[in-house]
Amino acid sequence: MTSPIIIALDYSSREEVMAFLNQFNQPLFVKVGMELFYKEGPAFIKEIKELGHKIFLDLKLHDIPNTVKQAMKNLAKLDVDLVNVHAAGGSKMMKAALEGLVEGTPEGKQRPLLIAVTQLTSTSNEQVVEEQGISSLTTSISLYAKLTEESGLDGVVCSPLDVEIVREAAKGEGFVTVTPGIRLAENSADDQVRITTPAKARELGSNYIVVGRSITKSENPVQTYEKIVSQWEGVTV
Ligand SMILES: O=C(O)c1cc(=O)[nH]c(=O)n1[C@@H]1O[C@H](COP(=O)(O)O)[C@@H](O)[C@H]1O
Hints:
This protein is an alpha/beta fold. The chain has one domain: Aldolase class I (TIM Barrel, Alpha-Beta Barrel), CATH 3.20.20.70. It is about 45% helix and about 15% strand. An eight-stranded parallel beta barrel has the order 1-2-3-4-5-6-7-8, surrounded by five helices. Helix 3 links the parallel strand 3 (about 55-60) and strand 4. Helix 3 packs parallel to helix 4 (about 90-105). It is globular, with a radius of gyration of 17 Å. The two termini are about 20 Å apart. The model has no long low-confidence stretch (mean pLDDT about 95). Bound molecules: orotidine-5'-monophosphate. Orotidine-5'-monophosphate binds near residues 180, 190 and 212. GO terms for molecular function: orotidine-5'-phosphate decarboxylase activity.
């Protein structure tokens, strides 16, 4: 997967996305989430793909194993590069997701990478302790990362601040960390809790960062994107 910077296209219509993408004259790695997919559907995925962009289809599947497997079979036909589930669905569900993806990928095509969300970047330690009765956020992230790797998935979604915990729990060389919760120094957290900058994310070992509003809501998205790319590239790893 080319660019390590994944732009979250959190728009609600095709028109807004096209206006955004038309400002760039280079292939991007973009993320299509629920807001856009529920409005524009598979046809728009195909259109974005035909423009030459890589796609992370972020639908965060979480259901009984059979339902997730059948859904993944359908997603596999969309020729996207990356898809995800919630690790909280458990190992049986994650294995079923992978089976569905393998079965659904057309012959001669590469199956999309499959990753699992550990704990959302909008979640705090207090929240998981109080609302989910979990001993700590760190324990939960560590357990989910290990379970994800043991289930045969390709990596996790986590905060850059969690990458160290993930690497301790899942030691496979090619296990990828895709990390949202990115803010430029001057930006506010919005609804995110566990955030950091692009440069710090790379220092912490993230393989990919997911950036939404810092780019899409900026006055000059192309310039902001370039700034993030140069911050990322400026870090020696
Ligand atoms: O799976 C994701 O992409 C995801 C997981 C997570 O824990 N936190 C998280 O923010 N995301 C997504 O990453 C993007 C972050 O957007 P911004 O906060 O605007 O940069 C959104 O599209 C979220 O849906």
